[in-house]
Design brief:
alpha/beta; Helicase, Ruva Protein, domain 3; two-stranded antiparallel sheet; 10 helices
Amino acid sequence: MDKNFKTKKQFGQHLLISKDVITKIVDTLDIKEEDNIIEIGVGTGHLTEEILSRNPSIVYGIEIDKAAYPIIEEKFKDYRNFELIKADFFDVDLKSVIGDKKVKFTGNLPYNVASNIIIKTVYFLSNIKLSVFMVQKEVAEKIIAKPRSKNCTFFSVFIQTFYKPEYIMSVPARFFYPPPKVTSGVIKLIPKEKIQITDIDDYREFLSKLFQNRRKMLRTKIDTELLKSADINPESRVEELNLEHILKLYEVVKSGDR
């Protein structure tokens, strides 16, 4: 822990300080010498250090906090395979960073924007080998939530359309500095090989509308004939559908819009 570094609430900073948890995250990344790693939120470099010890091809560390830059630069000045990207993740042109390379994403994500970060990675799915993220446990549980369960949301279905998620472990607050008020969870996301969605924005908007007023019958949101074409009972509610139902409904609705 760097005693001169002060965490900032606006960046949602809770530095992971448990060596065992850091090791488990990097083990789950399964780093090979040819791997290109993107770490979102370097902080003071605890996770970065362990990643670099596995000797990947390159680590791109994205960090928003200017106060962390001198610490990071000093700590990793002798590493030729580390590049610090001084920016907000949402402002980074990832395509210019990774080009056609395959990458592995990782990071102890800020709780306030973790869901949006994971959603953004979907747009680069063809470049991703796998991702391993630390998030709030509640977010991790939504990511792995089974259809027809109370935890299943728009976010759950969207992520599960593109990824096969796996819950790795829970991480108590005492393993962070400062300790957050919640438990965290480590998730692994493996991109699916066959994905039916070509227009991610359109599909995202479809899901968002579908999950609005989730207790309402689907016939109040979508034409009854379209529901029947998708073999869905018009009296059903969105929470009664599985992923296959939703994907079929999306295809039918898209065809009906043409």
